[in-house]
Specification:
22 strands, 13 helices, disordered N terminus, 499 residues, seven-stranded mixed beta sheet, six-stranded mixed beta sheet, alpha/beta
Length: 499
């Protein structure tokens, strides 16, 4: 499938490479070069080879994208359409994405090292489900009638906030694009999207499909580039009304500071996690082992809610440890385009080296390495599924296939250990006791708690963090709140008998 596209090309030796069609910035409905003419490399993590050269946005390009978004918001059709009309266009957009599922899954497979078959059955279908969910919500944005005292009547309006800056990460390029863009479109906003520099290709393809679906020019703009240039320009821009970001806690701090120093734009942050998975004595051990393996090794551990801290009650601990090692060793690491692979490569060399450094740090700190801990191939960024025990503290988000297994005695101890982190994004509980499940789920400080399951996402279930995992919610109708303003309208009634 390798070959030249209409404005880019892709090549990686020895592996299947999808045709790469779009590598330029997408501004005001057109693919354009960066003002500077600069490009940057996006690499194939299967080999480390250059996949494509992508136009590199910086402040000048962000200014153009924001101007296009502002003009489309102030003078264009999108915010002035009925919700029903916006919903119809969004559904056409979803139809087009569905029609290109194989191609889009291959783009993310080559650009991010994601499993091709899961991209086809999970990532892309989940994205279009999200888009359709908000298409259905577009005509259901309502205000309230107020019981205003005295000689007045009152009501509220919910209006689009304006130009939304959206900065998405590299671990789920497709799902994150639609997680943020879908509610913004439904609300009537226009958007400037900066995809991660590691994985810009699918976002540019989505911009093309949006135009085909009838999304007006200027409503969706995509500006690939680096965080310290393009991302910083979005967060500091005086004509961007809100920013939605998913990424590290460290960058989240910078975004809040930039938003405050500019125009006090609204900010929504979904940040890091160090999620606990708590397994009680009454659990089915085989089920719990498989669940814990999925919770940390799925998507090579590059998941913000990965169950990286596994707490097992002492009665089943030894059996669980033995079976977990066997399960990890049976988890096949290989080319994500191979349907027999369970795990592909880390997204890039930097992340690959970061994970390996964390593994060395764990060994130096006295933790016992039971399995894994090494590169899994001579070429590319593959790492073996890794399990540590005798871990005294597990606080840092590794964002890789590294499980820390720890023992506990009582429910109280499990709750205390689970909450012993600065993060609060998600948690898992495995037990047959409804009482234990209810008690722990109400006590753990996390935005999502899964009981006898993991990664059970749904467009209707709000998702976000406590503590330093951020604030604001994605998914559900609550996600539209960050793209809407509430306006109160109070009218005097001179003919009222109370006048």
């Amino acid at each position: 499938m390798a070959g030249n596209g209409c404005n880019g090309n892709g090549k990686a030796a020895g592996v299947v490479v999808p045709e790469i069609k779009y590598t330029k910035l997408f501004i005001n409905g057109e693919f354009v070069d960066a003002v500077s003419g600069k490009t940057f490399e996006t690499r194939d993590p299967r080999t480390g080879d250059v996949l494509a050269h992508v136009a590199e946005a910086d402040k000048a390009d962000v200014d153009l994208a924001v101007k296009a978004a502002r003009d489309a918001f102030e003078h264009g059709k999108w915010p002035r359409m009925s919700g029903y009309e916006r919903g119809r266009i969004m559904n056409r957009f979803a139809d087009l994405v569905d029609a290109h599922t194989d191609e889009l899954a291959a783009l993310d497979g080559a650009d991010a090292g994601k499993l091709l078959h899961l991209g086809k059955v999970i990532d892309v279908p989940s994205a279009t489900q999200m888009l359709r969910y908000y298409a259905g919500a577009a005509d259901k944005v309502h205000g309230e009638t107020l019981r205003v005292s005295g000689k007045y009547q009152g009501y509220t309006l919910k209006e689009p906030v304006g130009v939304a800056g959206i900065i998405i990460p590299w671990n789920f390029p497709t799902m994150m694009f639609f997680l943020k863009v879908s509610p913004a479109l439904a609300a009537g906003c226009t958007v400037v999207v900066k995809p991660a520099e590691q994985t810009p290709l699918s976002a540019l393809f989505y911009a093309h499909l949006a135009k085909m679906a009838g999304v007006p020019d200027g409503v969706i703009n995509v500006v690939p580039g680096f965080g310290h240039t393009a991302g910083a320009a979005i967060t500091a821009h005086m004509d961007v009304d809100s920013v939605a970001f998913t990424g590290s806690t460290e960058v989240g701090r910078l975004i809040m500071e930039s938003a405050a120093r500019s125009n006090l734009k609204a900010v929504s942050l979904e940040l890091g996690g160090k999620s606990p998975l708590i397994i009680f004595d009454d659990a089915d051990v085989d089920m719990a082992v498989n669940l814990s393996r999925l919770a940390i090794f799925f998507n090579k551990g590059e998941v913000c809610v990965a169950g990286s801290r596994v707490y097992v009650q002492e009665g089943i601990y030894d059996e669980f440890v033995k079976k977990s090692v066997e399960a990890a060793q049976s988890w096949k690491v290989g080319d994500p385009f191979d349907v027999t692979s369970n795990m592909g490569p880390q997204v890039d060399k930097e992340q690959f080296e970061k994970v390996l450094k964390y593994i060395e740090h764990g060994k130096n700190e006295g933790a016992t390495l039971l399995t894994g801990g090494k590169p899994a191939a001579d070429k590319g960024y593959y790492i073996e599924p890794t399990i540590f025990v005798d871990v005294t503290i597990a606080q840092e988000e590794i964002f890789g296939p590294v499980m820390s297994l720890m023992k506990f005695k009582t429910v109280e101890e499990a709750i205390e250990k689970a909450n012993c982190t600065r993060y609060g994004l998600a948690a898992g509980i495995v037990t047959k006791s409804l009482g234990v499940a209810n008690r722990v789920s109400r006590s753990v400080r996390a935005g999502t708690v899964w009981v006898n399951c993991y990664f059970a996402f749904d467009p209707d279930a709000p998702f976000g963090g406590y503590k330093m995992s951020g604030f604001g919610r994605d998914q559900g109708l609550a996600a539209m709140d960050k793209y809407l303003q509430v306006k109160s309208v109070i009218t005097a009634l001179p003919d009222s008998p109370w006048y």
